[in-house]
Design brief:
This protein has 15 helices and 13 strands. It has 399 residues and is an alpha/beta fold. This is Mandelate racemase/muconate lactonizing enzyme family protein.
Amino acid sequence: MKITAITPYLMQAGAPGETAWSAAGMSSAGSRHWCFVKVETDTGVHGIGEGSGWPKVVATAIADLATLLIGQDARDIDRLWHRMFVAQMGHGRTGVVGAGAIGAIDMALWDLNAKALGVPLHRLLGGRFRDRVRAYVHASSVETARDAVAQGFTAVKAGNPRDAQAKVAALRTALGPGIDIAVDLHGPPWLTAPDAIRLARALEPHDLLFLEEPVAPEDLDGLRRVRAATGLPLAAGERLSLLWGFRTLIGEGLVDIVQPDTGRVGGLTQLRKIAALAEAHFIQVAPHSGTLGPVAEFAAIHFLASIPNALIHERFLTDWPGRQAILTHSLETVDGHMLVPDRPGLGTDLLLDEIARHPPGTNIAADSAKHRGSYEAGTADEGLYTQPRRARAAFFTPE
């Protein structure tokens, strides 16, 4: 089964209705970019995948990597992964762009191999522990959270360190103890370790499902300090790539939940290895999926069905309507759970004509009220990565 073609497809997608941080949409630009790939073989069987990280750049990397794989046996998934990885070493350490390109092709290889055998993807991943996967949705407002509960979801996620205390208190009062609440503190602007500790302690009475990225991903010393100071379950990892990127988080037990991004981390080949390493350290897995397109979400559900330490899946309660229009099949949601597809491969395919109707545009965060609103008053123009609390007492005094 020789590879004959590898083609990337880039598109611009609209923003969802609400995120964990606010109801203003996904990104500062009000849109997302998705990068898909199709891998074809001489048998007529093809597979599809998705890569994120920086989709416009990932698409270029996919086209470059394709030259390595034409004529190779599509069944040698792990060998081809290493072939792509080694080929990038001349450019320095592989980050989320390189891993996203490898991962998109890797995902497509898993899809086409499962299709060739006529089995759903989770069968190749070792079979399934469960036939449905629990999901949580973003809920910045009480109204959205109540809508989610009415639709059967039993977990929500809120965010934004500027109003996390008040937001979580309102959600817990409205939802009661029967609904899980997670909190996402990621930036920019990131919190310093002392501020993250203070906020974590303030949130402890609400018994969070997890506290996500309390400090910048580079600040491992800060994360160690937060870890030692709070009893809340900690989660991190959405910005990391490859198995080695997770080695410190998992090996030192700095988190209770790892959050590899299905489209950034280097494909299902890497996801399986990260999950196994996490299992050996009694750490759970809850992949980052919020910004991803629908192909990577299919992969996430197969993956979560196949591992013992799966915690929960991330998604939006309401998303851009065009999300489902680019696929032949959509995922099904029942009582706050995602049903595991039973069709061959991932269980869906791309509608290329529909993708072509959404050409790519700008793919970086731009200045907006939402972006500026995450900063302390008067500091947005400074472009800070980590936010010093110049009015710290006011910050920690709920309104």
